[in-house]
Amino acid sequence: FYERIGVPYRRGILLYGKPGTGKTSLINAISSQLSRDIYYLNLKDIKNDNELNAAFSGVPGNQIIVLEDVDTQSKVLHKRTSNSGSFN
After folding, report:
1. Which residues belong to the signal peptide in this entry (predicted)?
2. Strand partners, 38
3. What is the pTM of this model?
């Protein structure tokens, strides 16, 4: 379906839970099982949508991108969303 409509297929997974419950261990296990590298993206370093797009573009295809503790970055996300009018 995705190929037919010209949209790249991507899968996003949100892991939520208290510290120490195995979220990072699960990410490492998935990475190992799929033989893919893990790229950590720190949202507090991202100031606008262009920087976010550049950060994602800098990761080779078919790798794992981890945005740790997204909930702690809500001010950054809110600022970026309100400044651009959209969040893509």
Report:
1. none
2. 64
3. 0.69
Copy the structure tokens of residue 86: 């959209």
CB distance 30 to 55 below 8 Å = no
Q: Is 72 helix (H, G, I), strand (E, B) or coil?
A: helix
Residue-level pLDDT at 75:
61
Question: HSE of 3 in the Cβ direction (CA atoms, 13 Å)?
Answer: 0
Tokens 């990410």 -> residue: 27
Q: Helices marked H in 1-88 — which ranges?
A: 2-5, 23-34, 49-57, 74-84
CB 8 within 8 A of CB 2: yes
| Domain spans in the chain, listed from the N-terminal domain onward | 2-84
